[in-house]
Amino acid sequence: MTAKKIQAGIIGGAGYTGGELLRILLGHPHAEIGFVHSRSHAGKPVSGVHADLSGETDLAFSGGTTSADVIFLCLGHGESKKWLAEHPVDAKTKLIDLSQDFRIAAENNPFVYGLPEFRKAAIAQASRVANPGCFATAIQLALLPLAKNNLLRDDVQVSATTGSTGAGQSLSATSHFTWRYGNHSAYKILEHQHLAEIGQTVQALQQGFGHAIHFVPSRGAFTRGIHAVIHTETGLEKNAAEKLYADFYAGHPFTHPVKNIPDVKQVVNTNKCFLHIDVTDGRIVIQSVIDNLLKGASGQAVQNMNLIFGFDETAGLKLKPSAY
């Protein structure tokens, strides 16, 4: 007998993260989609917006919701809080929010921060999960082993580049093809909003951490993916650093220290993070690559769903990169 599948609902299903969730959940062995909500596309077929799903599903966007075992909030920043204030959710329904609304711990915030490599046990017991930001995921995965072992002894320098999908589906001057193509620019230098959640995690692991994390984000001339370079002084030799990372991530199926220098295409369309560790002039240098829409958003959200419901952590997420 086939086990009963959980029912999943998506709020904000017309955007990039909603589309990625649809693609994953349609092939998930233990979940099926109960509803896909969109205020702007209610009544229209899902494949009318996500054309690659033609022939995969007859689902239509709804203007309302029905009961579900888990609801994913794929709304803009600030919109999840508004939606929850207007739509009370049954306490039995699990919530996974992909915005930044609940990532920072605060009084009366019931959401667990959803970085599995950091809080897997807590996520498994949670009913509310705040999915991490995309830059924050790539950077934190590079820093977790160091913070866990109290090895962050100096300021941390980060430069990272994201694809155009990191800006969301709404058009802006810096997301147009004519501006992005053949172009590269930095933005929100040293003040990106993801610094708050990165600092929160580092301080939770390495109590008393008081150094700065200097982050320079950039926009790249590609569609999806994040490439981050992180370096700081630790005093580690290369062999010791590589062993530290291999040991730390041994029990995590999606984060892999690699010998060869990684590039974005190796992880695009997957839920993986590849980390390359080197030591130069006494400084550890970590390269971290992820797909901003998968490990940086919807893939990680499904990974969190799997943990909450006791499924294999990799269920529905054994995805192949495009490679070429």
Please describe the topology of this protein.
Layout: E1 6-11, H1 16-25, E2 31-37, E3 70-73, H2 79-86, E4 94-97, E5 112-113, H3 116-124, E6 128-130, H4 134-148, E7 156-162, H5 177-180, E8 185-186, H6 195-205, E9 213-219, E10 226-233, H7 238-248, E11 255-257, E12 273-280, E13 283-290, H8 298-309
Parallel strand pairs: 1-2, 1-3, 3-4, 4-6, 5-6, 7-9, 11-12
Antiparallel strand pairs: 7-10, 8-9, 10-13, 12-13
Helix pairs in contact: 1-8, 3-8, 4-6
Protein described:
It contains eight helices and 13 strands. Strand 1, helix 1 and strand 2 form a beta-alpha-beta unit. With 324 residues, the protein is an alpha/beta fold. The termini are far apart. It is globular and about 60 Å long. It has helices at residues 16-25, 79-86, 116-124, 134-148, 177-180, 195-205, 238-248, 298-309; strands at 6-11, 31-37, 70-73, 94-97, 112-113, 128-130, 156-162, 185-186, 213-219, 226-233, 255-257, 273-280, 283-290. The protein folds into two domains: 6-131 and 297-309, NAD(P)-binding Rossmann-like Domain (Rossmann fold, 3-Layer(aba) Sandwich), CATH 3.40.50; 134-290, Dihydrodipicolinate Reductase, domain 2, CATH 3.30.360. It has a seven-stranded mixed beta sheet. It has a six-stranded parallel beta sheet with strand order 2-1-3-4-6-5, with helices on one face.
Strand content: 15-25%
Calculate the terminal CA-CA distance, rounded to whole Å. 41 Å
Helix/strand-derived category reads: alpha/beta
Number of individual domains: 2
Helix content: 10-25%
Report the uncertain regions.
Answer: none
CATH class call of the largest domain: Alpha Beta
Major beta-sheet overview: 7 strands, mixed
Widest sheet: strand order? 8-9-7-10-13-12-11
Fold-level CATH name of the largest domain: Dihydrodipicolinate Reductase, domain 2
**Secondary-structure element string:** EHEEHEEHEHEHEHEEHEEEH
Which CATH architecture of the largest domain would you pick? 2-Layer Sandwich
Mean pLDDT: 93
